[in-house]
Amino acid sequence: MKIKLYTPSDSSIAYSVGTTLDRFIKIKQDEFPFASGELSQILRDIALAAKIVNRETNRAGLANIGGAFGQTNVQGEEQQKLDVIANIRFMRALTKGGEVCAVVSEEDDEVIDLQNSSGKYVVAIDPLDGSSNIDVNISIGTIFSIYRRVTPLGRRILPQDIMQPGNQQVAAGYVLYGSSTMLVYTTGYGVNGFTYEPSLGEFFLSHPNMCAPKDGNIYSINEGTANLFETGLQKYIEKCKERQFSARYIGSLVADFHRNLLKGGIYIYPATSKSPKGKLRLLYEANALAFIAEQAGGMATDGFGRILDIEPTSLHQRTPLYIGSEKMVEEAEGFLKIKNERSISL
Ligand SMILES: O=P(O)(O)OC[C@H]1O[C@](O)(COP(=O)(O)O)[C@@H](O)[C@@H]1O
Ligand SMILES: [Mg+2]
Ligand SMILES: [Mg+2]
């Protein structure tokens, strides 16, 4: 009996396009002799909850899941039903997974202590990003950051476990519920994207080693409040128009970020005279995407400094965000600095 050896074309790579997320996590874990599997488990828990939220999102119009929940969250924003459903689903998966001791969520005023003294990790999460787009069938997302607790296991969680700068993240990512559903994440060793195959209930590697183009011609900003922007930013936008760059703004941070990550571009949610800290939240929006952007060769600042170096002072603190292709973010920063220097010297 003859035995034929199977030699897949790219056998040199342990994983290739089409590898399941589970397998990819396992392979990556094996690359770290000291890895003990807890972080891998959290990534699996997040993937599981994402599958459930994906199902709810897809049938939002049918199952009376759309619309307001009838309560406001700590940001004073009206919660959508899907905000609350997603929050419950991720919280449940992270609790059941058993590796997390505390969760910071956009939808909860306080830190959620999961009463799990053996949990080594803290998760900050925006369960449903782009809430204003839920009812109009436009792409929405989930954003997550993972940190290792800094206080000893078995002790009560302390503020220092939660208030860690983004440069302490051990993993971060997002889920995009769009025409297809994708999970994109980093553990500090590059960025990989997985596409969900609903009929098989699996995420498959579809975008290995994602790299942001160094430059681009897409700018994403809500110009509705342009008259409240600082002059440096107004000048930068004029420059983009002069160059006939494409203006693209979905109004879902995850979707705008993802497009620009693939095609090259800059997303800006600036400080305005009305909101001096902008709108987006540092702990569960900006930090995660900044980690991804940097790992993909892009850049993320608040207009003046690196997002990942901001020392958090409050759970739901906001930050201006300039994120995307390196050259574009650098240039936008340059415009801000010039104008600011001029206004200071006047
Ligand atoms: O309507 P605006 O002011 O442009 O804000 C849109 C931004 O607000 C957000 O919806 C805020 O996120 P949430 O939906 O999670 O609150 C971002 O996704 C989006 O980029
Ligand atoms: Mg959000
Ligand atoms: Mg949200």
UniProtKB/TrEMBL annotation:
Protein name: Fructose-1,6-bisphosphatase class 1
Required cofactor names: Mg(2+)
Positions that bind substrate: 129-132, 222, 249, 279
Origin organism lineage: Bacteria, Pseudomonadati, Bacteroidota, Cytophagia, Cytophagales
Pfam families: FBPase, FBPase_C
Family the entry assigns: Belongs to the FBPase class 1 family.
EC number in record: 3.1.3.11
Catalysed transformations (reactions): beta-D-fructose 1,6-bisphosphate + H2O = beta-D-fructose 6-phosphate + phosphate
NCBIfam families: PRK09293.1-1
Chain ranges of the Fructose-1-6-bisphosphatase class I N-terminal domain: 20-208
Cofactor binding comment, as recorded: Binds 2 magnesium ions per subunit.
An example Gene Ontology molecular-function term: magnesium ion binding
Amino-acid positions noted as binding Mg(2+) 2 in the UniProt annotation, renumbered to this chain: 126, 129, 285
Pathway listed: Carbohydrate biosynthesis
This protein's UniProt keywords: Carbohydrate metabolism, Cytoplasm, Hydrolase, Magnesium, Metal-binding
Subcellular location: Cytoplasm
UniProt cross-references to InterPro entries, sorted A to Z: FBPase_C_dom, FBPase_class-1, FBPase_N, FBPtase
Species, as recorded: Aquiflexum balticum DSM 16537
Binding site for Mg(2+) 1: 106, 126, 128
GO terms under biological process: fructose 1,6-bisphosphate metabolic process; fructose 6-phosphate metabolic process; fructose metabolic process; gluconeogenesis; sucrose biosynthetic process
Gene Ontology cellular-component terms listed: cytosol
Residue ranges occupied by any Fructose-1-6-bisphosphatase class 1 C-terminal domain in the UniProt entry: 213-336
